[in-house]
Design brief:
The chain is of the alpha/beta class. Helices cover 33% and strands 19% of the residues. It has one domain: Metallo-dependent phosphatases (Purple Acid Phosphatase, chain A, domain 2, 4-Layer Sandwich), CATH 3.60.21.10. It is globular, with a radius of gyration of 18 Å.
């Protein structure tokens, strides 16, 4: 289920000897992510470069079955990257925002989180922490156990997530940006939640290109537009994938994994 696609040309160019690899939305799909990262790491090993950054675009949790394992995997990557030759960056998506609010008893959008996959995240943590609960245990009781036992290392990681990152002419944001504002002057709400005003923006080309997730592409394939590169290819959908964009010079090469082995279907898939 791997797909390594040919290089595609971009209208902007990274500095020489520089590579950025962006990873699209994950949503608790541990097996797909593991297989994708093996392919990415193999590419990196075969193609060494002086300056390399890996950017995870957010939405690590919810909807899929293994959110806790994903957060644990990513926080270990973040720790290892501190002493590595390359840089790793982890952005916050709207689903991490909702989860963090869910950890707060005084949060205001628990119902929204629950409707958008929060139950799957809470259940994944109960399993990850080996906490057995009755099958008929209610949502509020599950949420209280989740709050009480949420790992401190995971809390530290999710509270360290960034909102935006830039390498040369490439701007990385979970959802996108307001194109009429400079990348450095964006509102947090837009960076994590924006859709139509960004997706369908029409205007003169800027001196940058936005790489984003958040909005699933209709074909479950990555897309290149004049102002953006879309990497959310429906990770939690049965027909979807997790996609990485490998940016070098003025090109991008995509690699995806949509393995269905062990895929757990639910109302979101």
């Amino acid at each position: 289920m791997f797909g390594l696609f040919p290089k595609k040309k971009l209208r902007v160019k990274l500095p020489d000897n520089t590579r950025v690899i962006a990873i699209g939305d994950i949503h608790g799909q541990h097996k797909r992510l593991s297989k994708l990262m093996k392919e990415v790491d193999l590419y990196r090993k075969k193609n060494p470069i002086d300056h390399e950054t890996i950017v995870f675009l957010g939405d690590y949790v919810d909807r899929g079955p293994h959110s806790a394992k994903i957060i644990d995997y990513l926080r270990k990557r973040a720790k290892a990257a501190k002493t590595a030759a390359h840089t790793e960056v982890f952005l916050q998506g709207n689903h991490e925002e909702l989860m963090i609010e869910g950890l707060d008893v005084e949060g205001t959008r628990h119902d929204l989180w629950w409707r958008n996959g929060g139950l799957q995240t809470v259940n994944s943590y109960l399993k990850f922490l080996k906490i057995e609960v009755p099958e008929d245990l209610g949502a509020e009781e599950r949420l209280n156990i989740f709050r009480e036992h949420f790992p401190k290392k995971h809390s530290k990681f999710v509270h360290s997530l960034q909102n935006i990152y830039r390498v040369g002419p490439l701007v990385f944001a979970h959802a996108g940006i307001r194109m009429d504002k400079a990348p450095g002057k964006q509102k947090q709400q837009d960076l994590r939640w924006i859709r139509d005003p960004f997706l369908y923006w029409e205007g003169k080309n800027k001196d940058f290109l936005v790489v984003h997730g958040h909005s699933i592409t209709p074909s479950f394939k990555p897309e290149i537009h004049a102002h953006r590169v879309a990497l959310d290819t429906g990770s939690y959908k049965l027909k979807g994938k997790i996609t990485a964009g490998i940016f070098e010079g003025n090109t991008v090469r995509f690699v995806s994994n949509g393995t269905r082995k062990g895929f757990n279907t639910n109302k979101f898939s």
